[in-house]
Amino acid sequence: MNFSIVERLRSTGRLDRVFIDGEWVLPQGQDRASVIDPSIEESVAEIALGTAQDVNAAVAAARRAFATWSVSSVQSRALLLDRVHSLILERAEPFAQAISQEMGAAIGFARSTQVPVAAEHIRVARDNLASYPFVTRRGDMAIMREAIGVCGLITPWNWPLYQITAKVGPALAAGCTVVLKPSELSPLSALLFAEVVHDAGIPPGVFNLVSGNGPEVGAALSAHPDVDMISITGSTRAGVLVAQAAAPTVKRVAQELGGKSPNLFLPDADLSRAVPAGVAAAFRNVGQSCSAPTRMIVPRERLQEVERIALEAASSMVVGDPSSPQTTHGPVANRAQFNRVQEMIGIGIAEGARLICGGPGRPEAFHRGYYCRPTIFSAVQPQMQIAQEEIFGPVLAVIPYDSVDEAVEIANGTVYGLGAHVQGQDLGVARAVAARIRSGQVHINYPAWNPQAPFGGYKRSGNGREYGIEGLEEYLETKAILGFQDTENPSTTVQSSRIAQEQS
Predict the structure, then answer these.
(1) What is the C-alpha to C-alpha distance for residues 9 and 254, in angstroms, rounded to an integer?
(2) Of 42, 43, 20, 19, nearest to 33 (Cα)?
(3) DSSP states of 72-133 as a string?
(4) Is the pLDDT of residue 283 over 60?
């Protein structure tokens, strides 16, 4: 069936299909969901919601496809990933427009960041696939790394394309087949991605997409006995539910969950550089990033200077219509998130934190839309709710400390451990402090984003890693073959055995 997502959306405003076994098909149920543009609080599209029966069909298709995809050559998989990468870049503008409309990202940010970094995950998966040693020797053993099987991928609304490619890219590179459940709150870019996969020539059944909500589609995917692995990015609460549903079938569960990331300023930090960059990092994507450094931990004697610079930085932000190129920050993505941000700002005021900019309500120019005022609290105590709970919006807590040991204790003093930052001019000291922070990533002095850097959490921020080599290895099983005798070229023998099995 010729099914252009862009044309269907333009002509009907309805996207009433799911993608199973290489075809756009009608789901088994009749439920539909509206996609709300958060800048105007109005529906801009209607999508189909899948059912457990659709999950069954998608998993069956993925299981059939796994038999051949898992033993396909590295070269053929890399070539197909290269086509996916190229098509994302060719269709960058439709992707950017979809992301801006479905979750309120400023169009400039969608074009410069949301889409390009998503494409990078596919490129990295392709490149890592080409060089990865799937067979290695250890004495008389061959150690094989093989695709784990059918993978259920559950992605969130805040980075809707980026989170998809971070999972789909390495999963397909590893030889796995997948069933994707994107967020029903921002599904348009996911549907565009399914169209890219189809047009790139990925074989039927290798990639499947079933839109739907968590209690129906997410639960069915997590509990399915023919799904070998679940990878979820979402809230800690959602991660717990997925793990509980997956437990009876003893499948692998990789979780990238919540965060409350610290940004620790050492006494010698260059505030003129570090504070504006810290505010920008905390409010990137309107604060809707699980690794956003929303706790700025600073020397008490420099608190007033930090406040002054942070206020200047926040004042330069342009909150506005996401379709305007001048806008730096659009609305938050949905009503529930808007209400959460407003509630937490109120709690911060009630707790006695010092409000230095922003506050409750929309910016003065807006009477509708889920727009929030960029908000900074100072003199925040580490035990306050705004310093402990993930807010997922443009709210920054500035926390003073009296010693570096106390600063490290504050940095580690939450249930989360996803990302962290350290600022300091003495690199040796900064490295030593970074080593003491319990989180999956630590950034020293705002380095450039690196798609090869493994990303994942300690504590309640999850388990497993995404991105880079470690992200690829999440989708692999390890097999040891003892008594392996070909010391010349073990990979040739293993590959010959696989070809013989296929032909037979």
Answers:
(1) 34
(2) 43
(3) S-HHHHHHHHHHHHHHHHHTHHHHHHHHHHHH---HHHIIIIIHHHHHHHHHHHHHHHHH--
(4) yes
3-state class of 136 per DSSP?
A: strand
Tokens 């690199």 sit at which residue? Answer: 427
For residue 1, what pLDDT is reported?
Answer: 45
Confidence at 493, pLDDT banded by 50, 70, 90 = very low
Place of tokens 């679940």: 230
Of 6-10, 136-140, 218-222, 289-293, the least confident: 6-10
Tens-place pLDDT, residues 393-430: 999 999 999 999 999 999 999 999 999 999 999 999 99
Nearest Cα residue to 316 out of 303, 306, 326, 305:
326
Q: Which of 120, 146, 195, 256 is catalytic?
A: 256
Closest residue by Cα to residue 380 from 262, 236, 267: 262
Give the model confidence (pLDDT) of 27-73 as tens digits.
999 999 999 999 999 999 999 999 999 999 999 999 999 999 999 99
| Active-site residue, from 151, 176, 290, 357 | 290
DSSP state of 453: S
Across-strand partners of 18?
25
What distance in Å separates the CA atoms of residue 378 and residue 17, rounded to the nearest whole number?
49
Q: What is the DSSP secondary structure assignment for residue 214, as one 8-state letter?
A: I
Query: What DSSP character marks residue 423?
Result: E
Q: Which long-range contacts link 319-322 to residues 24+ away (Cβ below 8 Å)?
A: 319/363, 319/366, 319/371, 319/372, 319/373, 319/374, 320/365, 321/39, 322/39, 322/100, 322/101, 322/104, 322/105, 322/106, 322/107
Kindly write down the DSSP assignment for every residue of 375-396, as one continuous string.
EEEES--TTSHHHHS---SSEE
pLDDT tens digits for 235-259?
999 999 999 999 999 999 999 999 9
**Active-site annotation holds for 176:** no
Token pair 């080593």 is at which residue?
435
243 close to 277: Cβ distance less than 8 angstroms: no
Q: Catalytic annotation on 256?
A: yes
- Biggest CA-to-CA distance, the chain: 75
Of 148-152, 189-193, 211-215, 490-494, the one with minimum mean pLDDT is 490-494
Torsions phi, psi for 177 (to 5 deg): -110, 155
Token code pair at residue 156: 């969130």
Burial class (CB in 10 A: 0-12, 13-18, 19+), 303: middle
